[in-house]
From TrEMBL:
Residues 257-369 form the Pallilysin beta barrel domain. Residues 24-52 are annotated as: Disordered. Pfam families: Pallilysin (PF18663). Residues 30-44 have a biased composition (Low complexity). NCBIfam families: pallilysin_like. This is Pallilysin beta barrel domain-containing protein.
Length: 503
């Protein structure tokens, strides 16, 4: 079965590919730099001082879930961090994404920090510029696109002209040199879309017995008269991707003049066209409301609201929207919308993993939607009759089996069965009240989430207030909270009025 990775969905003309067009701003470092080693040591000492920022980042969508292992010198500022193991040794490497200043033309750069066993510290081993310039739309993923059991670094983003960019870096093999170093094997930017077409590989590849097929790259550009689709394939003898095919398809005649004008317009006209209710095939409704910067999804008794963060045009009849959940900001989506005609659109909604930044298609909300005439007010499916007031939780709670739960927003500590977990927590409303924990280890790295349905009860008598928390385990999906068969946990907090004591 074949599937593909759609790198980004935004505007973008091919600018080069091949060994002769490698970026000149690459740099490889030697591990003998005492200055860099010293800077890394001083930076490492600061890691333990940023626990609160890391927790808030995990809760509210900060891209940097760990601290940099090396110092980032001005004028560069940190955009993203990815902790990985690129060479299968004991120590992880770190991919740092940085950008110089706020200039729209300054390129985004990636730096690999490697561990030096001689000096017991990290140093910058290699760096390279990418074609992207916009930090908010930059992503780094790792994949064996070549098929030789080595991991390539895939960088996707947008440049200062609004073009979509793709840079793939492959590790170099150098005799008598153990330092990490990479070289670009494809570098393109297009006014359209870029797609890495993945396919399943053989069991022999999965078992490490033989190499697998490489993944081709497709770039699609649409102009007034035709759509041009270019295919790039890996050539092991050359050591880079080359263009092997180009297909030109005439555009279908657009009969609707208003649609023709819309397709030739900018983002604002697209947003105005979308700003209404749209009913889907599966009892779902989407309301695009640009005036309030919100996108609301309805289905059955489910309602989800997303902040409309940004919009980008790609191809003539399509737009891409970035959004984040109003209640839980680290839940992010990308909505790709293609206009079929004046009254229907095709919606592809992608969930974005807040740690790996990979996108996965959400079938629950994706599909064809039909316009509801402006001025009408269709029933908002799932709109609650009255707002639910969520409790503010803090302090010490004791469980029925001796567990101890300490809440100091946004942090928590849970001690149970001789083990202790800590991290961040959030209380929010889906189809039911939800109490969610983001677990963080001693290094400040996120180690997973646990979600519970929250059953809160508060009783008051003459001298005390008793607060009871019922935590029913479950999972969170796009359709809301779903309970599992795991046992419920119950915690109690007692607050005395006079003696100011609790248990």
């Amino acid at each position: 079965m074949k599937h593909s990775i759609l790198i980004l969905l935004i505007p973008m003309v091919l600018i080069g590919c091949g060994n002769g067009e490698k970026r000149g701003q690459q740099k490889a470092y030697s591990s003998t730099s005492e200055e860099n080693s010293s800077a890394a040591s001083s930076e490492t000492k600061q890691i333990s001082d940023s626990t609160r920022e890391q927790i808030e980042g995990l809760l509210y969508g900060d891209e940097k879930t760990s601290e940099p292992k090396i110092a980032i010198a001005p004028p560069y500022s940190l955009v993203q961090i990815l902790d990985v193991n690129l060479d299968l040794d004991r120590n992880d490497e770190q991919i740092l994404v940085v950008k110089a200043g706020d200039s729209p033309d300054s390129p985004i750069k990636i730096i690999i920090a490697d561990y030096d066993t001689l000096r017991d510290g990290y140093y910058p081993a290699w760096e390279s510029e990418t074609g992207a310039t916009q930090r908010r739309f930059f992503g780094v993923t790792l994949s064996d696109v070549v098929g030789d059991h080595n991991t390539e670094i895939i960088c996707s983003g947008i440049d200062s002209q609004g073009k979509q960019t793709l840079d793939i870096f492959r590790r170099e093999s150098r005799a008598n040199n153990m330092a990490i170093s990479y070289e670009p094997i494809i570098t393109i930017a297009v006014e359209g879309t870029i797609e890495i077409r993945e396919s399943e590989r053989s069991q022999a590849y999965l078992n490490g017995l033989k190499n697998g097929d490489s993944f081709p790259v497709f770039a699609t550009v649409e102009n007034e008269n035709e759509t041009v689709r270019s295919m790039y394939a890996w050539r092991s003898g050359d050591g880079y991707y080359i263009k092997v095919n180009e297909e030109k398809t005439p555009r279908e005649e657009i009969e609707d003049r208003k649609l023709r004008e819309l397709f030739n317009s900018g983002v604002d006209a697209f947003e105005e066209f979308l700003s209404r209710n749209w009913n889907g095939d599966h009892n779902s409704t989407i309301l695009f409301d640009k005036s309030s910067q919100e996108i609301t999804l309805y289905s059955g008794d489910i309602q989800e609201i997303y902040h409309w963060n940004s919009s980008y045009r790609f191809l003539s009849n399509s737009i891409s929207i970035k959004g984040e959940n109003e209640l839980v900001p680290y839940i992010r989506v990308e909505i790709s919308i293609r206009i079929l005609d004046s009254g229907s659109i095709r919606v592809s909604l992608y969930d974005i993993d807040n740690q790996t930044w990979r996108k996965s298609l959400n079938d629950s909300w994706s599909g064809t939607y039909y316009a509801v005439p402006k001025g009408t007010s269709p029933e908002k499916r799932g709109t609650p009759e009255a707002p639910v007031k969520l409790p503010t939780l803090s302090g010490f709670y004791r469980g029925e089996s001796g567990e101890e739960l300490i809440l100091t927003p946004p942090r928590f500590t849970l001690s149970a069965n001789g083990e202790q977990l800590s991290g961040g927590f959030a209380v929010y409303m889906l189809n039911v009240p939800v109490f969610e924990l983001k677990i963080i280890d001693d290094r400040g790295i996120g180690r997973g989430e646990q979600a519970y349905r929250l059953v809160y009860k508060e009783e008051q008598d003459n001298d005390k207030i008793t607060r009871t928390l019922g935590l029913i385990p479950g999972i969170i999906g796009m359709k809301g909270f779903i309970e599992t068969d795991d046992p419920e946990m119950r915690f109690r907090q007692i607050e005395y009025f006079e003696d100011d004591q609790s248990q």
